Binding-protein-dependent transport system inner membrane protein
Amino acid sequence: MFVVWGVVTITFALRALSPGDPVNLIAGQVPDQATRDQIEQDLGLDQPIYVQYFDYLGDLLTGSLGYSYNQRRAVSDIVAQHFAATVELAVAATVVALVIAIPLGVVSATRRNQPADYGATFGSLIGISTPNFWLGIMLILIVATQVGFIPTSGRGIAFHEAVYSIFRYGYVGHLFEWFTYIILPAITLGTYFTALITRLTRSGMVDELGKPYVTATEAKGLPKTLVRYKHVLRNTLIPIITVLGLQLGTLMGGAVITEEVFNWPGLGQTFITALRNGDWPVVQGIVLFIAVAFVVINIFVDALYARLNPQVSDE
């Protein structure tokens, strides 16, 4: 809760210190001073800053994120409309990262100082060093222009709608459409995560492979592949899950640039638009939502960590 309160306080302070008059954003250059005074009174801007702050906290406690006069809608409705797209992109990027990174990390650890290990290490270095906005633009220029069925912007169809289409009508075309729209943004957003998990998996596997239980299980005649993936990799997954939870929250907050590049209608693009328009209630609402999501994800990861490693819960 302290983290959420800190985010609320900092964003409110930035709003108070930001240049520009909120009344101008709502009323434009209306010369009627009485109208402007009425708007200022309705927004509570005629009150001292500390009164505005506690009024804002009171609204949050009642579940109100404020009202966007630019869009003429409640901020909670705007967040509800766009958050699913951001979560969808973050989860897709995570899946892409895990599918590539874990097998690559295992191969790199079991073939140390071999070409596969060098290739995985070099690829991880490139992935960590590559800015995602540049990678997104390159994917648009190189891949999408050469492969005609991959769109370069937009969302197309939501994942739940594609799944519903399969169960309701038996039609898989919408799922393919969803895949073509999300694949490039997911790769762009998940590249850094892929490199990070690859290096973490390799490091954990190298440590585990040197322990006595590995030699003992192999001496019993168990296949090396079974030992590596059932025993060694399972023990390696504990720190990976911790990083996974942290990075999932980071992906939700860090999808801003990727969403802007691919015109993905999520919270990131909405945040950029609100920032450009000076729509501070929307900016505050999105930042607060991401902060709460980050805290919830971390709590879930801690619980899962204790489940996988009972020694943590006993301490």
